[in-house]
């Protein structure tokens, strides 16, 4: 499978308030293949949002390279093509909804791309169906729950037909039900073929990914399958991160001498291991 994202020795520095250099990312080399679901975790300030912004050319590397579908984000002539390939969803659903009716909101992106009206209508229908929000097409977004609003925001991005979705803590402001709606939607879209980069501080969400990338102080500290990452309970805790409850219980029981496999990361796996 082809690479959709390729970061090469990416470094990003911001100008701090007193003119000092704030190093947000250093030495990041990472590739994401088409069809992959990559979760990105890391404590506050570890550089996750800065990384996400590079994937959509919202900011440019201080040094190193960021390639999207082979296009260099530093090439001003390619910015629109890049933004069409990579759709972004942010934390706060209220900041992403621009129109007073759901269907107008979803149409906003393709309208800006200059898509013809009949085609826009088709895309809105399709995008709302993909996030299970067809019944709300004519509703006002302000009446929706947080999870529904985020799904409308995702539909707005899908209407631009991106190859890749980048979501920066899309469930941080949602209740457990809204979180489940959003994660289920994203997982299903991924199974249907779209590449996903999913930033989260909920470890249970990262368990659904094919690969987990762990950021620490602007560096890519670890990457591997969820089982490879979440079995490193002590390492993650030193970094200030949680681990899924099942992984923690399993690690605790192993320390007590129980013979359990090291790849337990979900409640189901724990139950099966304990009650074969
Ligand atoms: P995360 O999303 O993991 O919390 P960020 O990418 O937002 O991390 O931030 C990484 C680092 O860059 C932090 O030290 C943060 O304070 C700093 N930073 C982020 N945005 C800016 C900015 N606009 N100006 C200066 N420093 C910033
Ligand atoms: Mg962030």
TrEMBL record:
The protein's predominant localisation is membrane
> What Pfam families would the database entry show?
ABC_tran
Biological process, per Gene Ontology: cobalt ion transport
Q: Which residues cross the membrane?
A: none
Cell membrane among keywords: yes
Q: Which GO terms describe its cellular component?
A: ATP-binding cassette (ABC) transporter complex
Cellular location(s): Cell membrane
SUPFAM superfamilies per record: P-loop containing nucleoside triphosphate hydrolases
How is it placed in the membrane, per its record?
Answer: Peripheral membrane protein
Q: Which family does it belong to?
A: Belongs to the ABC transporter superfamily.
NCBIfam families per the UniProt record, alphabetical: cbiO, ECF_ATPase_1
Q: What is this protein called?
A: ABC transporter ATP-binding protein
Could you tell me the gene encoding this protein?
A: ecfA1
């Amino acid at each position: 499978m082809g690479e959709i994202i390729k970061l090469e020795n990416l470094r990003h520095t911001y100008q701090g308030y007193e003119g000092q250099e704030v190093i947000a990312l250093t030495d990041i080399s990472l590739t994401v293949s088409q069809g992959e679901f990559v979760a990105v975790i890391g404590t506050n300030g570890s550089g996750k949002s800065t990384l996400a912004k590079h994937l959509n050319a919202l900011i440019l590397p201080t040094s190193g390279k960021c390639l999207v579908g082979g296009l260099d984000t530093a090439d001003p002539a390619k910015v629109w093509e890049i933004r069409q390939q990579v759709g972004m969803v942010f934390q706060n659903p209220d900041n992403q909804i621009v129109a007073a009716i759901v269907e107008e909101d979803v149409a906003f992106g393709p309208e800006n791309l200059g898509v013809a009206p009949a085609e826009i209508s088709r895309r809105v229908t399709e995008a709302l169906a993909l996030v299970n929000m067809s019944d709300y097409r004519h509703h006002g977004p302000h009446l929706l729950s947080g999870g529904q609003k985020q799904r409308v925001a995702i539909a707005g991005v899908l209407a631009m037909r991106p190859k890749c979705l980048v979501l920066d803590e899309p469930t941080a402001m949602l209740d457990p039900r809204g979180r489940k709606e959003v994660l289920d939607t994203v997982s299903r879209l991924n199974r249907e073929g779209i590449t996903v980069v999913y930033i989260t501080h909920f470890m249970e969400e990262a368990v659904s990914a094919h690969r987990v990338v762990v950021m620490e102080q602007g560096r890519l500290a670890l990457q591997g399958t969820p089982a490879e990452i979440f079995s490193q309970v002590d390492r993650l805790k030193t970094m200030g991160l949680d681990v899924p409850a099942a992984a923690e219980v399993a690690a605790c029981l192993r320390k007590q001498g129980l013979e359990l496999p090291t790849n337990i990361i979900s409640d189901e796996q724990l139950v099966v291991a304990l009650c074969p």
